[in-house]
Write a sequence for this structure.
């Protein structure tokens, strides 16, 4: 890939997409993701003030403060960011929502809101920075910890994990990806495609907790990720204003156009012949991952850009609701007379 | 029980002369039997005859099979509170009929299905047996419809007994079945059949009668939830999120109905409002907070259990200073409680809702006009003070039909509070989201998406300084929550002010919300029956303005009338106005039934006797 230009299509520089200094542990996987988010929004040329950065509670939920200082941010309550995203999307459909969550925030306390967000196709790039533990309360297992995985203190996880990607596909999510904070190159392409995507884009990212879950016996450690990650394809995203620069050598590749004109390019790798438009194939791929602890498949698992977003499903005006003039919202005197007459 | 001379609502004594336009009808039916249309037809017909009415639906938490009662009060003086005495009883429910008959005062009229043989139960009532089962077979050949049509038979019988005009009944039915001409004909025929049977078989009319008068001209008949929704519509609500819960569901359902008609852009066919049924109340309030943060006028409607679930987000809304309109149609708690019964049970819970030091503006509509007005004003309050606001109505106001003056068109615009647009942000030097620039505790906010490179900030429920930057500094924290307290207290003069009706008495009554109707009538009873003049202050909002304390100070004894067990408003005043707390006595009603005047009158008389004795 060519070196990034100094400015993007808006004439903004990378620094215009930066945020405050991270207060997370040195080496935290989340910080890598934060930097990748900065690159993705920069390369996609999104106006920072049109981005809403949303989160719940937890280490991951702190990160929206570390990117896009020019965007409005909202660090809400534990597990409830999807409700905030939904409300914001209804109020102003021109905003680009990015929500950053964690495995506790999504798979435990926030499960109820997570599944209904998927079901509604709420427009949001929804990241789960998944490390299998509660970091901020010092290392308790979360609901995504693998069965048999060993905690820092020696305890073994006895319960099966919740697989967020499988769940997302089953609930009709049209953009389901899995990635690894140790694979920045892949994550950047996924994020760019997710930003271009209009509905809920769910990205489950293994993001090791260097303090509480980075030891031998953990299946969410950095070494485990590095040793097991198997991208199922090479990925590229070409925004609508760019000429296709992705060239795959040989083999068959898949192009999936998004409604905004951008194109996701995918070339299967090795034994995988995964077409992300195939829902059943995606579920099978995830099943393999779930059943074989030595497998850690990454990439865009499922992609279906055809589904209506929440706002279209609700038939909302193209004009954002939040600042519609009162004349459009308050019925006329004649209308009130009509209402009163109907009650007599 | 004696009746006041000013309001001789039927006394069931031996007087043979008719009692006109002062009566209560109670219709006992089985839940799910479709009696609602019949009962509303009677109510509406009397209303159309110019006689003031009110209707109370006393229903179970059940879809079909349990007993339900509908009471209609017609009163020439315009009293609309529930009366506990029944003058005309219609027994259509075998299950409760014996108890129903045992509960009415001597002299009452009882209409019943002849096979129930209720006339053997008492000898001091006027019994009217009617062969409903037989009649319905004659009038309705379709077996499956008989259960519904039988209700119209009693409408006809009651119309004959009480002199309700057939033309008005037909008019009421035309309204109910405007889009169903076949059903209209069937129902009118049934009413006429009931009437004809009664004309032929009933020789003595009931002593309770109605007679046309002119006291309802121009008025409307509507439930409070509809009025609240209408207020929100005219306030320019753009996002409404809800989770169904009795007795509040019809707030948002009314809004949906109104939005279908008045919020679809005629040119594009697109909607200018988003109404979302959330997965639970946690999400409903989250949607509201998210939408309001992004600039929308946003609301939710719920009842007590929903407020319990919303409390975490309400605390966030308070601390992060995000507007939200929360309509709480109160029902009987705690827990699931009596979900279809009324109560003013969340007064305390809403005033200080959520963990930590919090306080929220609360407004208490007492009637249809205020349900509409406050449903609108709540948005101005929420946006002006950038905070969640509670509209505390209850099941009695929300779900029952009340007479009201026609809704007035709102004059003037709306108050969106201190919102800075691009130019405003550019003009303001050193803007900080939580800076108290004007000394009123209200900061200036910006809306996501505002261009120009200024105004972006990070909203959080954790500690923050004037610039919305994370802070755990104790002095910064204390300064911030002190400002918040000042801000909310400052709303007291902006909120609906209390209404005083003083007649120079040293005895005062304080009430709020739906206790209004009963208290107004009780004051007449106290004056008429006991020669006791009272002053009256109706609270309409929390926090209290200074005038509340002044009014209490000007009285020797003050009775706070409310519909809960613990005297929640009295307790709230004791906390907020400690200097005068000793003057506050409490009159409480908490059976789940709407408050009646007699309960208030008796309690005041008993308490005054004690007070006199102590002097």
């Amino acid at each position: 890939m060519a070196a990034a230009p100094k400015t993007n299509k808006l004439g903004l520089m990378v620094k215009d997409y930066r945020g405050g200094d991270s207060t997370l542990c040195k080496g935290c996987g989340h910080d890598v993701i934060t930097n990748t988010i900065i690159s993705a929004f920069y390369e996609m040329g999104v106006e920072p003030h049109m981005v809403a950065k949303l989160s719940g509670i937890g280490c991951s939920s702190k990160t929206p403060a570390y990117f896009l200082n020019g965007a409005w941010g909202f660090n809400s309550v534990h597990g409830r960011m999807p409700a905030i995203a939904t409300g914001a999307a209804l109020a102003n459909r021109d905003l680009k929502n990015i929500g950053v969550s964690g495995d506790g925030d999504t798979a435990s306390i926030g499960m109820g809101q997570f599944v209904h967000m998927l079901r509604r196709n709420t427009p949001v790039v929804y990241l789960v920075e998944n490390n299998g533990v509660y970091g901020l309360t010092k290392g308790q297992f979360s609901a995504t910890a693998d069965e048999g995985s060993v905690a820092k203190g020696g305890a073994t996880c006895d319960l099966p994990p919740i697989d967020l990607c499988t769940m997302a596909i089953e609930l009709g999510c049209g953009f389901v990806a899995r990635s690894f904070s140790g694979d920045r190159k892949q994550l950047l392409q996924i994020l760019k495609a997710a930003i271009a995507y209009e509905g809920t884009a769910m990205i489950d990212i293994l993001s090791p907790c260097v303090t509480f879950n980075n030891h031998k016996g953990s299946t969410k450690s950095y070494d485990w990720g590095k040793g097991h990650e198997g991208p199922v394809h090479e990925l590229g995203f070409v925004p609508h204003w760019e000429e296709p620069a992705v060239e795959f050598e040989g083999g068959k590749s898949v192009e999936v156009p998004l409604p905004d004109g951008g194109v996701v390019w995918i070339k299967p790798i090795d034994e995988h012949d995964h077409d992300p438009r195939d829902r059943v194939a995606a579920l099978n791929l995830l099943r393999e991952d779930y059943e074989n602890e030595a497998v850690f498949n990454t990439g865009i698992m499922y992609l279906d850009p055809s589904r209506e977003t929440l706002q279209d499903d609700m038939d909302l005006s193209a004009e954002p609701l939040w600042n519609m003039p009162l004349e459009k919202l308050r019925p006329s005197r004649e209308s009130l007379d009509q209402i009163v007459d109907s009650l007599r | 029980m004696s009746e006041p001379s000013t309001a001789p609502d039927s006394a069931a004594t031996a007087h043979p002369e008719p009692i006109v336009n002062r009566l209560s009808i109670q219709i006992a039916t089985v839940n799910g039997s479709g009696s609602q249309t019949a009962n509303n037809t009677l109510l509406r017909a009397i209303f159309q005859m110019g006689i003031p009415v009110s209707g109370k639906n006393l229903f179970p938490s059940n879809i079909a099979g349990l007993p339900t009662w509908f009471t209609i009060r017609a009163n020439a003086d315009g009293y609309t509170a529930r009366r506990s005495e029944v003058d005309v009883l219609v027994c259509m429910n075998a299950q409760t009929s014996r108890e129903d008959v045992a509960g009415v005062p001597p002299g009452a009229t009882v209409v019943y299905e002849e096979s129930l043989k209720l006339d053997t139960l008492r000898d001091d009532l006027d019994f009217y047996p009617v062969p409903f089962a037989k009649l319905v077979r004659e009038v309705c050949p379709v077996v499956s419809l008989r259960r519904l049509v039988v209700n119209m038979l009693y409408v006809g019988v009651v119309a004959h007994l009480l002199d309700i005009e057939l033309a008005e009944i037909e008019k009421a039915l035309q309204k109910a079945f405007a889009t169903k001409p076949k059903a209209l004909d069937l129902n009118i025929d049934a009413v006429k059949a009931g009437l004809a049977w009664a004309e032929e078989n009933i020789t003595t009319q009931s002593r309770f009668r109605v007679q046309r008068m002119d006291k309802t001209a121009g008025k409307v008949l509507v439930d409070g939830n509809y009025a609240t929704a209408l207020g929100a519509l005219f306030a320019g609500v753009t996002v409404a999120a809800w989770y169904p819960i009795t007795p509040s569901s019809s707030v948002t359902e009314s809004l949906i109905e109104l939005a279908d008609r008045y919020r679809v852009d005629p040119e594009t066919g697109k909607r200018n409002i988003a109404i979302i049924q959330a997965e639970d109340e946690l999400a409903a309030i989250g949607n509201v907070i998210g939408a309001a943060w992004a600039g929308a006028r946003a609301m939710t409607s719920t009842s007590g259990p929903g407020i319990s679930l919303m409390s975490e987000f309400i605390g966030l809304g308070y601390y992060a200073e995000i507007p939200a309109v929360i309509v709480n149609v109160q029902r009987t708690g705690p827990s699931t409680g009596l979900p279809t019964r009324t109560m003013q049970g969340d007064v305390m819970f809403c005033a200080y809702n959520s963990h930590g030091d919090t306080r929220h503006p609360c407004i208490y509509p007492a009637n249809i006009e205020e349900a509409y007005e406050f449903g609108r004003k709540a948005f101005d309050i929420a946006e002006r003070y950038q905070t969640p606001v509670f509209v505390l109505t209850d099941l009695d106001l929300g779900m029952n039909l009340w007479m009201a003056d026609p809704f007035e068109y709102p004059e003037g615009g709306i108050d969106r509070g201190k919102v800075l647009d691009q130019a405003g942000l550019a003009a303001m030097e050193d803007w900080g989201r939580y800076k108290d620039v004007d000394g009123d505790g209200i900061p200036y906010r910006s809306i996501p998406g505002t261009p120009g490179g200024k105004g972006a900030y990070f909203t959080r429920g954790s500690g923050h300084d004037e610039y919305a930057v994370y802070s755990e500094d104790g002095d910064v924290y204390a300064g911030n929550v002190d400002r918040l307290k000042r801000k909310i207290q400052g709303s007291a003069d902006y909120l609906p002010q209390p209404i005083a009706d003083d007649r120079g008495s040293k005895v005062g009554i304080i009430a709020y919300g739906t206790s209004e109707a009963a208290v107004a009538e009780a004051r007449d009873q106290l004056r008429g029956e006991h020669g006791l003049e009272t002053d009256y202050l109706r609270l309409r909002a929390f926090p209290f303005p200074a005038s509340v304390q002044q009014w209490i100070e000007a009285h020797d004894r003050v009775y706070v009338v409310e519909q809960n067990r613990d005297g929640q408003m009295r307790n709230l005043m004791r906390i907020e106005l400690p200097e005068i707390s000793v003057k506050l006595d409490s009159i409480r009603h908490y059976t789940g039934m709407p408050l009646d005047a007699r309960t208030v009158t008796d309690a005041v008389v008993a308490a005054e006797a004690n007070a006199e004795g102590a002097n």
Q: What stands out?
A: Residues 29-44 of chain A form the longest helix (16 residues).
